[in-house]
Structures are given as C-alpha cells and as structure tokens.
Amino acid sequence: MAARKKTYFAVLGLLSWKPMSGYDIKKFVEMGISHFWNESYGQLFPTLSRLVDEGLATKEQAQGSGRRKRFLYTITDQGREALEEWLRAPSEPVRTRSELTLKFFLSCRRPPAEAARLLEEHRSQLEERLEEYTESERTLARAVETGALPDEVGHLLQADSEEESALDLRPEALMFYLTLRQGILVLQARLAWCDEAAAALKPNPSNLGAVTQ
To answer: What backbone torsions phi and psi does residue 108 show, to the nearest 5 degrees?
Structure first.
C-alpha cells in the first residue's frame, strides 16, 4: 500500500474518535504516537483535502473560531467503512530506516573513533527520548488505573456531548500505555546495542569474542 494511503488511514483513525482540526491531529501525533508514526504538516493538510474530495471526511468551519478560521474534519460513514476494511487487512512487514545506523554501517573503513562518535551521538539521542517516554509512562500508568487521561491528551479527545464525556477512558489509556511501552523497550534495546558495539570497538581483540558468543 502506498505511503499516501497509509497516511489516509492514520488520519481517518484519529477522526474516528472525534471531529478534529488539522492542528488537533498534528498535536495528537506529536504527543501520542510520534514514537511509532509521524506526519508532517506537508503531508497532513493535503491528505485532509483528499479525504474530503473522496467523501471519506467532511469539512466545516468551527463556531467561535475567532479571527483565524478553524476547520473541523469529521469522518463519514464511507470513511468508517474504509477504515474498518484497512484495520482488518494484513499489515505490511516492518521496515526500519535509520540514517545513523546506515552511517555506522558505512564507517567500517574509517577510523574506529568515527564509529565510536556515532555511537555516542546515538546514545545521547536515545537517552533523551527515553527520559521523555518514561515520564509519559508514569502518567499513563496512573490513567490506566483511574480512567482519567492526561490533560493534554484528554483535551484532544474531549467529547462533545455529556453522554460521551461519561464514557470510561481506561481502554484508551491502556492502549496508549501499551504502545508507549513498545517504544520504551525498543529504546532500551537500542541502548544495549550501543553498549555492546562500543565495547567491541575498543582496541582489544578479545572484545569481539564476547560479542559473538
């Protein structure tokens, strides 16, 4: 499936929860799912326009939007059918693209110090992201127990009716928590690889034997 279509369904999936503006969607991506999926503004707004053109969503100006116009996008029945069909379809194998890992691989004919520098750069990035994820993990763990989502996420999912506002949000909190746990475990595995690779690069032939055992 083309990347463009995958973006369709990422946006449709979020719109299936509630009507959102383009800004709402981008904010939710940044706060909630950026560790496994991301969309740029350059992708997001053309996708919203195409969804409207194809009858999968509607667009209307929000009331009280002030001087700057704010448009809300709402999934249609046709959009829900398309989303359901995609959710049930087999998923493509995971493909990973990492510029830093590519640089590390291609540094095999450069001085070991260059590969070590790349590892340190990678470790610094991973540790910073892991700290952010760990803080979010604690917040989401509390949300699983109480059913109260963090304010920044709850605001984006705030229901429009009192009936919907009374819904138990613990299933959503649990799903957010579990997907975040995947991100944390991946980061921890990558940090462990940094340690292993750094040890193997030290000028001691016995280090490689320990890695390959």
So the answer is: -65, -25
Range of the domain at 19: 6-88
Half-sphere exposure (Cβ direction) of 161: Cα atoms closer than 13 Å: 4
pLDDT tens track for 58-102: 999 887 655 677 899 999 999 999 999 999 999 888 777 788 889
What crossing angle do the helices spanning 112-146 and 170-201 adopt, rounded to 10°? 160
Is it the case that residue 130 has pLDDT exceeding 70? Answer: yes
Q: How far apart are CA 152 and CA 135, in angstroms?
A: 14
Q: Element (H or E) spanning 129, and its range?
A: helix 112-146
Does residue 111 sit in the same domain as residue 194? yes
Quick: pLDDT tens for 28-50. 777 667 667 766 767 888 999 99
- What the block records as the tokens of 31 is 């706060």
